[in-house]
Design a protein that fits this description.
Shape: globular
Largest sheet: 7 strands, mixed
Number of strands: 22
Structural class: alpha/beta
Helix content: 25-40%
Length: about 550
């Protein structure tokens, strides 16, 4: 018996020795979130001589930039400098090589916001795998340590001593200690776990003296360009509403609510027969979800409005939302931000099923006319993109998560040039843009979209240093370049990948200088910061 117990103890000891053990890693700067912002931040921190670790919950770095957003949202290329411009220049260099044009001959490509100057050696349209390849090479050249599949323990994982984060613990049990921390996630998970003030959804216009915030109904004009009956049985309110259609807008215009603008996957498609796999009907396909699509087709909506086919090199697309009924899974993003990881995975799968089902419906369903079928028939998933996910993007396009509330909040007044900013850390130049938060029954009795916004801003505007640092009494060694301090409307003019790259570099610069000076991030002298940013190619507009 004693011999048996001894053998059993030896067995369990051996098994225990084979289990992965939690480790503790110390670095000058710890970055959570392998988005484009996180990648650029890590490179800048390393270039400033700091030890840095980049922690990413997934298996592929780059965020939206490497997940199908290859037709870059950039109204004005002239505001992009620093390492962000370096990235786009490397894209240009890659496509100068004829050998990299595999499925078509090299040729000029139209840009999303007009032609690029012939003298500009940067390119703003690219394939997803090319973006990831370039980012990985830049990370390697900077000697940055990247740890994949590391998700933050959002419940008890952040350890603080007064206003300083000491360490963060991951779900793996691994611990990462640092002098400075950056939250580069789209959701603001580290910021929230560090108990920094934030908001989610839309504020009332009255809070910051705005015009375009809060609930935005059809009180002025219709958002939809076709009339779609909202009821299961047309013109019969007692039959119930179509899926995801609310009975009303939710309240008076301009009031706050809990709606969040819609998410989607930025699909990459191709019409090259040798490189495509057609999308199959999802196993759990729910035809009722597409009744709104059938009725839009019956109302003669343009075939082009279901999703974009914006061309990138090698006959691939960035297929984003294109109209009122498109790839956005409207109304299904509201719970994402505060959800646990398992719930987020479920929400992401629902979005994937919606979009796969949309493609299959447009290409195959008997209620879809030949004009629509013919328009979408050539397009399938590329075999050479997202290879370990069978052609589908790795990450959902999270357009808006949490937004920090610091000592300065960027609002639509900032974006419209009505405020003077004297501590710029980079420039933004995009429309105040938001996608629908919900479908609802409009005042005329037909389906409407609520929450859509596309308001032109007059010129580039500076982003304040104070917008990326928390209130000093909440945290002194955290920077937030993605979920920065902004209202919903102000954020709408910033939430684009080039801006996140710019802010990632600037935040890494602030963190590095704070280490050098032995001070809180809020106390880095702006003149010192400004000189370093200019030295490193950032454009400040001052």
């Amino acid at each position: 018996m004693k011999k048996f117990i001894f053998i059993l103890l030896c067995f369990f000891g051996l098994m225990n020795s084979l289990l992965p053990r939690a480790v503790t890693t110390s670095s000058d700067i710890v970055i959570y979130g392998g988005t484009s912002s996180g990648v650029i931040a890590a490179i800048q921190a390393s270039r400033m001589g700091k030890s840095v670790v980049l922690l990413h919950p997934g298996k592929h770095i780059g965020g939206a930039t490497t997940n199908g957003l290859g037709w870059v949202d950039c109204k004005n290329h002239a505001v992009v400098g620093g390492i962000a411009k370096e990235f786009f220049s490397k894209v240009w260099q890659f496509y100068q090589n004829d050998a990299n044009w595999i499925f078509e001959a090299r040729h000029p490509l139209s840009d999303q916001h007009g032609p690029v100057s012939p003298t500009e050696r940067a390119m703003w349209v690219f394939e997803p795998h090319v973006a990831e390849r370039i980012m990985k090479a830049m990370i390697k050249a900077a000697n940055v340590q990247v740890v994949f599949n590391e998700s933050l323990n959002r419940t008890t994982g952040v350890v603080k001593n007064n206003q300083q984060i000491i360490q963060i613990e991951m779900q793996s049990g691994n611990i990462y200690q640092g002098k400075m921390f950056l939250d580069c996630t789209y959701e603001g998970d580290l910021m929230a776990a560090a108990q920094v003030s934030y908001t989610v959804s839309r504020e009332a216009n009255s809070l910051y003296g705005e015009i375009h915030n809060g609930i935005q109904s059809d009180s002025q004009s219709r958002a939809f360009n076709v009339l779609i009956d909202p009821y299961i049985v047309k013109q019969n309110a007692t039959s119930g509403l179509l899926p995801r259609v609310f009975p009303n807008s939710g309240g008076p215009d301009g009031t706050e609510d809990n709606g969040i603008q819609s998410y989607n996957y930025r699909m990459c498609l191709t019409d090259v027969v040798a490189n495509k796999v057609m999308v199959q009907k999802p196993i759990d396909y729910d035809e009722s979800q597409y009744e709104i699509v059938f009725r839009a087709i019956e109302a003669n909506i343009s075939p082009k409005e279901f999703f974009h086919l914006n061309l990138m090199p090698n006959r691939k697309t960035d297929s984003n939302n294109a109209g009122p009924i498109s790839t956005d899974f409207v109304g299904m993003s509201w719970n994402w931000v505060e959800a646990d990881d398992a719930t987020r995975q479920n929400i992401a799968k629902q979005h994937e099923n919606w979009q796969r089902g949309l493609i299959w419906t447009l290409q195959n369903h008997p209620r879809v006319n030949s004009e629509v079928k013919d328009y979408y028939a050539p397009w399938g998933l590329p075999k050479d993109e997202f290879i370990d996910n069978k052609g589908w993007p790795y990450e959902l396009y999270v357009r808006e998560g949490r937004r920090m509330i610091s000592s300065y909040v960027i609002t639509e007044n900032t974006a419209m040039g009505q405020e003077t900013i004297t501590d710029s850390i980079g420039l933004a130049d995009y429309q105040m843009d938001s996608h629908y938060a919900k479908y609802y029954v409009g005042s005329d009795g037909y389906v409407e979209g609520e929450g859509g916004m596309y308001v032109t801003t007059p010129k580039p505007f500076p982003i304040s240093f104070k917008a990326v640092v928390p209130k000093a009494e909440e945290c002194e060694n955290l920077l937030v370049p993605v979920c920065l301090s902004a209202s919903h409307v102000g954020y709408g003019a910033i939430r684009m990948e080039p801006h996140f790259m710019i802010l990632g570099q600037s935040c890494a610069t602030i963190a590095s200088l704070a280490i050098d000076l032995g001070c809180a991030v809020q106390n880095v002298p702006y003149d010192t910061l400004k000189a370093q940013l200019i030295k490193d190619g950032q454009l400040l507009g001052q």
